[in-house]
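[agent] plan:
  1. take the single chain provided in the ticket
  2. run structure prediction with default settings
  3. attach structure tokens to the ticket
  4. add a short note for the reviewer (M.T.)
[agent] executing step 1
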Amino acid sequence: MPGRIYAEVSTIEEARQLAKAIGELNTQVLRPVPSEELRHIIRVSAPAVKHQSWVRVRGVTKAWKHYRGDVGLVETSGQKNILLLVPRIPAVPGLPSEDRPSQVLAQRQTIVANFGPDTVCDGRHDNFSFQRRTYTDKGLLMMDYDGFDAISGCNILPSMLEWKLFKESGTLESDTISRTECAILASRLKPQDRVKIVGGSTHGLLGIVVEVREGECVVYIPSQDLSEEIPQYQLRADFRVGDEVKVVSPPHAGLIAWVIGENNGRFKIMNLSKEIEVRAWCLFPILANLVIG
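[agent] step 2 finished; step 3 output follows
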């Protein structure tokens, strides 16, 4: 509005100190802007998010209370964004509001059994609503959001529990599964791990992790006798026959075995009691970093 100066501050005292720097202003006439007027005064574009990208909830309103810090999946449709989250519904009615329920896919029959048939309403496209929130037929929570409610970035990944439940829901596209599995594997890299570079100017070369930093690794490339800083999403663990590994994803989590074969990103591993085949992202190297050559 004409004749007014607006400032974003945390307290009225901060506003007063700021106003003192402008001699023409009366520091005694300061007023907070009503919340309903903020959208008309402050116009900031929300960060763009891609379809089926991962974001971390940071919303400060009551609606996001139990989900703050959780990782969700963005679904885009035209100009509208939907955030899919693993629900946190109390197992039984009456849970204190300050308690944070566990992450579990919302099963209609379970909700009906615990809360009564009148608490669930049918929606469109096989969705259903419960306590004024909408859930997909596969059990994920659907939330409208404007981009300010979440943090986006290539380094944001779901927890192993969230990843397992999202895969169970059948919501993930094949490209999302492949991209996320590779990113999860890359995020577990540590110094001395062997890697294959899958992007950038050194694409296709093999290297050894020298240092792990925020979102990137320093990789020594023996064939070029040089070290490069490479984003983690451009790196893949280089498992070889004979490496000892640990499975970190169900249903074989905790199993320690040896790599005995590889086929298109799937590794055949074996221990003394069984032989199974798993995807690379499920493995964590134990002695692989000692078998360099």
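[agent] step 4 note for reviewer: Residues 287-293 have pLDDT under 50 and may be disordered.
[agent] ticket updated
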